[in-house]
Automatic annotation (TrEMBL):
Residues 64-99 form the EF-hand domain. Pfam families: EF_EFCAB10_C (PF24548). It comes from Galeopterus variegatus (Malayan flying lemur). InterPro entries: DD_EFCAB10, EF-hand-dom_pair, EF_EFCAB10_C, EF_hand_dom, EFC10. CDD domains: DD_EFCAB10. The lineage of its organism: Eukaryota, Metazoa, Chordata, Craniata, Vertebrata. This is EF-hand calcium-binding domain-containing protein 10-like. SUPFAM superfamilies: Dimerization-anchoring domain of cAMP-dependent PK regulatory subunit, EF-hand.
Amino acid sequence: MQADSSRERQARDYLEKHRIMELLNHLTSVLLFVRPEKPREYLISILESMRIAKLTSVAFPYFMDNSNIVAMFEMMDTAGKGTISFVQYKEALKTLGLCTADEVLKDDGHIITLDKFRDEVNKRTQEIWSSF
């Protein structure tokens, strides 16, 4: 029985160390957002782009471009105030596969503007890509 829990712990540690769940969540979100005709080929192309970027030290591919980020922000900012709530911000990061359900995000009381949202999406995407 203890060997099973040890193997489970090792597996969990491995997944956390290499941020596998974040990658899979993000790839799934991108796949559902883009909805390509050939999903397997699309996923292979994303992973190949990541591999090339890593080998050549070029910028990692962003699959949510600025117009997508703006559109998502505007859907949440229904009143057109230029801000969204912290709850909306966290849910958007989860939807994009950039935040796990159990991740604790600190609500510092500041409003979430488009710039802050864009910066966080890009930063978290970069962190996921660069961990591979």
